Amino acid sequence: MKYASFLYYKSKYHSRQLFPKKMWKLVSLCEISILNKSHTLPLKWEYLWLAGTLSCFVGLTAVRKNRTLLLQVYFVFVNLFSTVPVLFALMLYFSEFWEFCSNSEQENIQIWQGYPLAALWYAFLIIAMQVHIFTLIFAWKLIFAWKGKLALRKVN
């Protein structure tokens, strides 16, 4: 496998290489494991969750311009495109995760790198859900703080 020449660096110990020799072992192992496995397409909830990253731009614009309406739009987008897909994924992997936790025989469980895939998904999804819930809490508090500030401005 040939690599582009600009990716290599010259060191005083090795003439031309991309990584030190120890890193080559890791890269080759990852490359072999990736090439040997059949890849599945992302699920629909993953596409929807990925679309939720666009809501970040709405939220950043709302904070930069101090716009309550944009922050409310951000709140709705985070609910629809971030929290709902994560909840759906938690429900999707629940049966396999429950089977892993409750049974000593794990015949129907998908394994990745020696770990049960459902457990890895659950660990990731629980952290993602916490992040999204905190995002919603902070956005909600900011909406009410800005609305109160606007009400004070209108009275004065």
UniProtKB/TrEMBL annotation:
One Pfam family linked to the record = Jagunal
| InterPro entries in the cross-refs | Jagunal
Q: Where does the record place it?
A: Endoplasmic reticulum membrane
Residue ranges of the TM segments: 47-63, 70-94, 120-144
Q: Which UniProt keywords apply?
A: Endoplasmic reticulum, Membrane, Transmembrane, Transmembrane helix
In the bilayer, the protein is annotated as: Multi-pass membrane protein
Which GO CC terms are listed, alphabetically?
A: endoplasmic reticulum membrane
Q: Which GO terms describe its biological process?
A: endoplasmic reticulum organization; vesicle-mediated transport
Q: Is Cell cycle set as a keyword in this record?
A: no
Q: According to the lineage, what is the superkingdom?
A: Eukaryota
Q: Work out whether the entry's keyword set contains Transmembrane.
A: yes
The family this protein is said to belong to: Belongs to the jagunal family.
What's the protein here called?
A: Protein jagunal
User: Where does this protein come from, organism-wise?
Assistant: Armadillidium nasatum
Q: What is the lineage of its organism?
A: Eukaryota, Metazoa, Ecdysozoa, Arthropoda, Crustacea
Name the gene for this chain.
jagn
